[in-house]
Records
---
Amino acid sequence: MKKIAYFASLVILAGLVVVACKKDDDSTPPTEENKHAITDLDPKEGPVGQEVVIIGTNFTDQNATAAIGGTAAVITGVNTDKTELYIEVPNGATDGKISVTIDGLRVESTQIFDVTETIAGPESIELAETDLAMRSLETISVPEITNIADFDNPMVQWESNTPETAVVDNDGNITALQAGEAQIEVSINSASGELNTTIEVTVEESILVVGSFDNGNYDVASLWLNEEQIVLGDETDYSNAASVNGRYVAGYEGNRACVWHIKNKGEINRIDLTADGVGYAEAKSVVNIGDDVIAAGFIYKDENENSM
């Protein structure tokens, strides 16, 4: 009886081992529904270190490897809908198809990825100046990039991180708007990659005086910016500037109340507040609140003076 019991125990133990082994080996093989596929590459060429987007379906970065022409590449990520897998061109890679292996299933692209030569370029952007002092309403050009000739096919961009203090246009002209600190970010994209640097800008308030001057025929509205005269009015009619607030000047031209918007010394827009034929009007003060410009003054009509 003892032998029979011992034999039965061995049989039961063996059965448990077989069941356990089956459970350990239980994995879901890829099916046509969850099989991954490569449909495109972006870009289709690039140097070592270039990020490549593998476009397709059912991608994951778990239990996954990738290669370019047989050389293993690092997978850097996958998008949320599993249609893009991101890799970098590895050192030693040569032209060839890109393969992706997930859970032992390998697929490869129909296109050949061309590994291009890495183009050497400057390691930094060199500027003639990196610190600028400006006054409000002043416009100057960004400092010269002294090593621009060393870049291969450069594309230069400028951007202000504090546009309420200073702005920069696509041509690299910086305009100071109000007192404060700002940074102008300079970036250069070229065949060798992208480089960035910054320009520190300190803006002080300008000294502004408004009024009019006699041109021999008419009194003409003017603004004096740090003692430099800027003519606001049309010199063929009477006008006057009554007050200034930031970049806005209140006054009149002809018989119309108006506000002059000074974008910079060379760009001034007149905003008419009243039309011809409604009587004489004049704006006496102006404030700028957000996107709104609010002026106060009077309209003289039918021998009655009315506030605006």
---
Amino acid sequence: MSAPRSRRFLVVGIVAALLLLGALAAFLALRPQPEPGLPGAQGAASAASGPERAALTVTLVSPAAGEWPLVVAANGSVAAWQEAVIGAETQGLRLVEVRVQVGDRVRRGDLLARLQSETTGAEVAVTRASIVEAEAALAQARANADRARQLEKTGALSAQQINEFTTAEQTARARLVGLKARLDADNVRLAQTRIVAPDDGVISAREATVGAVVSPGQELFRLIRRERLEWRAEVPSAELARIRPGMAVKLVPPGGEAVVGTVRQVAPTVDPATRNGLVYVDLPQPGGAKAGMFARGEFETGHARGLTLPQGAVVLRDGFSYAFRVDGEGRVSQVKLAVGRRVGDRIEVLEGLDAAARVVEQGGAFLADGDVVRIVDAGSAPVAAK
């Protein structure tokens, strides 16, 4: 009796356990699940997923205070400091040779062009021959006058005759002086057949054509003296009082590197139409700047303290500048900035951060507001978290 009863109790226990397990499974299956947006669901998801993973491994930087230059921005044209107009000084002569082209560098006295000189040379030769003749006539007249003066006391010659000899001497001397002056004028005309550079510089324009007959004052060449250029900046009248001769200026011509200049002169008048005044800036080393270019530049008028960030810490989005501030838990918040000037790889921060703020130094473009980051020392390179 005991063995069959034991087996019966065992079967009943197994069946009861199976029924209990089935009821528990049915209860869990039919239990209502919390919605994803409810706190319970978020807590369950957080409990299931564990700690939030870092979006990026970053280094931090704080805004640095420093001296920043105060500048006045302006626009203007690059022009020649002085452009010499080289033309003909004689008339009726033909151009027989042109030796320079636009862009050629020349030195003072270099031959640029040559006019026909045969006629003028012949005139010089005739005048020289006339001088020789006049010198001989003067020598004879002087000898006659000397003899007449010696005979004056003897009475052999009348006063009228003596006067004629002395007058002939003076006339011969005056004729010689006149011929020498004519020779000087002929030599000047002969020299004018050689068109030479009045100063060192570079040829900026050429109108001379071989075979053309020139007239006095006709322009043949233009020369930028000493290759000196200047920037003629148009500065608003309200800013003119801050600019002084000797100030440093930096301008950037189109497609070129920055050029450093020095203020030479501030114009004494202001254009009544634009209310702008001209400031003349010398460019000792013009670099890529050329006469006629339009350039933008800045005048350094002083210095002021300000906060700056590295360029990599500032992110440009939708036309605005942002930085990512990091709190004590490593979570970032996007902060809108008002930025100013840029010097090198630093950007001036006008509004949005204080000196104690800690922001992401690099990689802000890969972050969003609220992301969690892992902070490392500045010596470690930022890498994306896996």
---
Amino acid sequence: MLFFRAVFLLSFVIIAGNSMAQAGPAAVSDTPMSCVPTHEVLNDLLPDEQKRFGRTVCADIVAMDQMLVYNRFGSFNPFGMIYALRRDVVGVDVKVGALDADACDDLDGTAGYGKGLTPGEVRLKDCKRPRPLTLRANAGDVLHVRLTNLLRPLKTPAKGEDAGPDFSRDFCDAPQSDGGYGSFFHQIRNWVSSGDNTQSDHREVACGPEGYRPAPIPGGKDDGPDWPTSRGANMAIQGLTAFAIVNNQMAEAPDACKGLGAIPPGASVDCFYMVEREGPYFMASTGAPAGGEGDGGSITHGLFGAVMAERKDSRWYRSQVSRAAFDAVFTPKDDDDLSDHARASETLSGIAPYETTKNGVPVLNMLREVGGDTHEIVHSDLNAVVYLPDAPEKSFREFSVFLHDELKTFYPAPSKSLAPLARASLPGSATALRSITGPAAWATCFWPTARASARRPIAPSVFMRNSSSPPGPMATRRCLSSSATIRRTFTIPT
């Protein structure tokens, strides 16, 4: 299993969405979260000897549906769910513009918020990989999280509405003439998930011949839609104290901020946590605490992540970026005789390049300063360069690793690898596997399989030329929009 100021500040805000209406759920508010210096209010309420919070770090996040692909043999969870930064999410009506690694290399990760987000009608931005959400804060921070539930809501069949995704109907029986799935959809499905009647009866393949239903398992029950019908979401962060401030007084945090209640699709809740000690803190939704060993549910489907509490005053930078982001920070040398890895020397000295911004958004720094010792998390990368201004020689790279056990998995045909698809043309691939999570696009890369957090010092050789600089980030070749991971990684030569 998974182990792991305003004076009138409101403790939480619920934005109600018409999630059960026949016309479908309404879009949630496009208003950015209110990120105010909550730490000042909190300190005013504490005795002098307990005033210990120096800033507020805000994260605007959503819970959403996302198909998860686990390996190059195509094992996948069509009912996956993930947390994501709201700024990394767009509506499915936004046309996909980057389909392959070269196109992804032109994106620097500083795009702004998506608009008109509707539960069940969202996807990750182009080239954003589905990963367990990793938030960071320093010891002595107040972490303010606004969680919005964008999971696809339940429908009411009696009202003529679609009851929800059905794997057999929406994946296996999707008609060849249905262009909405993209021309690549059927190629993948038929290659890795289809077989004859016998293979279907033995559950060796996910899909039998068109319209065929496998024989019932003796003593078992017929397969149903197999879709998680609990669509509530919450956030429980193990080890962090959740609180609220109501009428300028300390108050009990909302249940959804402690894993004791859930918000429905279209609703939002503001949660506040005290970050007091360094270390990794596992977070997950217990909105559907069933399955597994009794505490699976939402976690089984991927709705988890972590808060990495760093040393006080540390700064955190992205560790793996696209070519566009790398070039924006470290200017390439304009010399045809040099390797394309060569960089202008003036960008390799000191900390200033690491604070490069585009359109007001940091390229590498994971925090955007809002003002008044208040910051917004704008990047949620698994791994980070953690820079210690008072002791730069002790800066390190941090690797956040998660173990995802007891997976919900649909298996493809035996021994068929998706690796050749990495070399195939990709017509329509961005919409090819919308499949049964509705409009949610297929995973761009593999979902990771590991756990907790590991830290190790950086070898001196990977520091920039100036020893007071932090470790250099790696420019990473993004993976293809199929499930094959192809990565080219390089570091700045010293």
